[in-house]
Design a protein that fits this description.
Helix content is 54%, strand content 7%. It is mainly alpha-helical. The strands form 2 sheets. It has a two-stranded antiparallel ribbon. A hairpin with a 5-residue loop joins β3 and β4. The protein starts with a strand and ends with a helix. The mean pLDDT is 87.
């Protein structure tokens, strides 16, 4: 079973699906759906249409350069059947898929990190702009000093009361 790629959006085309367009010079264009076929006929550039794979790669939203993509290329060389070769190939395909998914996840995390930094800067700007709405931050030292001042005032009041009482007794 051969799974083809759409000429316009680069998605998979399974057997019995999609549209084939053959130009006068015998070049074949395969499309996954009529949306891609119509866009091609309207001479749209896939790198400028936001939902295509070409746009995502050209604008840095997907991993574009990676050594795992080399194994996905077509090779037009016939190979003599060898059971051991096929087993090794299938094992390598699984391993490569794991590596690719790990690298893509890492790439996505790196991309999102930049967005989080921008979001943090925007939040900081908003806080600076609306600082008058926020109560001032009180440090532990200020709380300690305030409590100390209160106790000193209470002690002074008690001393005054004691002096007043001692004067009354005299």
């Amino acid at each position: 079973m051969r799974i083809e790629k759409c000429y316009f959006c680069s998605s998979n085309i399974y057997p019995g699906h999609g549209i084939n367009f053959v130009r006068n010079d015998c070049k074949m264009f395969r499309f996954c759906r009529s949306k891609c076929h119509k866009s091609f006929k309207m001479k749209r550039n896939p790198r400028k249409v936001k939902w295509t794979k070409a746009f995502r790669k050209s604008h840095g939203k997907e991993l574009a350069i990676d050594s795992t993509f080399e194994l996905e290329k077509k090779r037009h060389v016939p190979v003599k059947y060898n059971r051991e070769l096929w087993q090794n190939t299938i094992h390598a395909m699984k391993r490569i898929q794991e590596i690719r998914s790990r690298r893509q996840n890492q790439f996505i995390k790196q991309r999102l990190k930049a967005g989080k930094k921008l979001e943090l800067k925007d939040d900081e700007k908003e806080v600076e702009h609306h600082i008058h709405l926020i109560e001032p931050k009180v440090t532990e030292e200020e709380v300690y000093n305030a409590a100390l001042n209160k106790t000193k005032q209470k002690l002074k009041e008690k001393q005054k009361l004691l002096e007043v009482e001692s004067m009354d007794m005299d």
